[in-house]
Amino acid sequence: MKHRLLGRRALVTGGASGIGAACCRAMAAEGADVVIVDLPDARDVAEELCAEIEATGRTASFVPGDVRHPGTVAAAAEGVDAVVASAGVSHHPDQADLGDLLGLDPDAWRFVLDVNLTGTFLTCVEAARAMRDAGRPGTIVTVASVAARIPRAGVYSVSKAGVEMFTRSLALQVASRGIRVNGVGPGYIETPMLDGVAQVRGSHEWLSVWRERVPLGRLGTPEDVARVVVFLSSDESSYLTGSVLYPDGGYLLQGGSG
Ligand SMILES: NC(=O)c1ccc[n+]([C@@H]2O[C@H](COP(=O)([O-])OP(=O)(O)OC[C@H]3O[C@@H](n4cnc5c(N)ncnc54)[C@H](O)[C@@H]3O)[C@@H](O)[C@H]2O)c1
Question: Which of 138, 110, 140, 111 is nearest to 123 (CA)?
């Protein structure tokens, strides 16, 4: 089972933190060289992660950039075999949307859709073009959410539902070139983003409320998600495309009501 990605070049957006960082570590442990794309502010932590990966014998580099801007991923996608579009936000920094669509400022709506949906679109099509032009098959994994299936998180749910349909649409368009496109839809995963949402709600106690909603009885770890991403990026999933897998501890089993 080891080294399922040996010799492959992986590119992970949002790779400096949370689920993206766990994907970088897990893909490198399976033999991949890694390119991290993240905001310029993430430089220090991204470079630390690169050093950690290089110490294991793989190469790793950081490309600063904003996934909302065309060209960010194209500049880093040469020779890429496996892409993970993990960059995302839960809400606008100045307006915490907690599902209140009637109170949502249009700029906050645009911001979340720009990062989560347009950013995923730009990342994936720029990577798919690089794979097509190089005539090499490859894998693309998008990061949706259980929120795509539950209309409780306002514009965040809308953005992730868009990511799911984009995943299926792109999968159909590039299948004949041997490029597979799948998604993961995580449940509650312990990352800086989840901490941020708890803070916005006013209390860390929210983490225990969410834990109680999960049939498996615990919050997910970034590694729980990364293992699924490695599977979707490896030949073990060779006959899967256009699928979204949900590492959610069973959360969706109860219709998300919990
Ligand atoms: N944590 C959860 O419970 C959870 C659940 C479901 C889905 N997700 C999704 O997983 C993905 C990763 O989230 P996380 O929990 O690891 O969050 P995180 O905040 O730890 O990591 C997100 C990363 O994306 C980067 N990023 C944000 N905007 C960017 C931009 N415009 N350009 C480039 N990089 C940008 C951030 O700098 C950060 O490094 C997101 O798409 C999120 O919506 C998270």
Answer: 140
| Residue 212 placed within a domain | no
Locate the ligand 1 atom nearest the alpha carbon of residue 115 and give its number: 31
Provide the number of structural domains found in the chain: 1
Residues, the chain: 258
Which residues touch 145 (CB under 8 Å, ≥6 apart)?
153, 156, 157, 160, 185, 186
Judge whether 123 and 87 are in contact, CB under 8 Å: yes
Each residue's pLDDT tens digit, 74-97 = 999 999 999 999 999 999 999 886
Residue ranges of the chain with pLDDT lower than 70? 1, 97, 256-258
Q: What is the 3-state secondary structure (H, E, C) of 167-201?
A: HHHHHHHHHHHCEEEEEECCCCECCHHHHHHHHHC
Is residue 27, in this structure, part of any structural domain at all? yes
CA of 143 to the centre of ligand 1 (A): 9
User: Which residue, 61, 177, 176, 169, is CA-closest to 124?
Assistant: 169
Residue nearest to atom 36 of ligand 1 (CA): 14
188: annotated active-site residue = no
CA of 115 to the centre of ligand 1 (A): 10
